[in-house]
Structure prediction request, 86 residues.
Amino acid sequence: MANHKSAKKRILSNKKKAIVNGARRNSVRTYVKKVEAAILEGNKDAAAEALKVAESKLAKAAGKGVFNKNMASRKTSRLAQRIKAL
Prediction:
């Protein structure tokens, strides 16, 4: 356990940030799953609409440091390729 006041404060802020980041990560995964579900159904229009939302969420999470920017870009690109192939 930390002894310094600043270290104790840092532990508390890290816990809060971990909760927020976990919620953001979970939210992004949900939107990506919606895109994948639409792709599996073969519904190109619904998949494209879901991709717009998922792409936005991925970019925002990457900007906040929840995900690596390259990972977010790669995931968006791969989803877009799958939609285009429908």
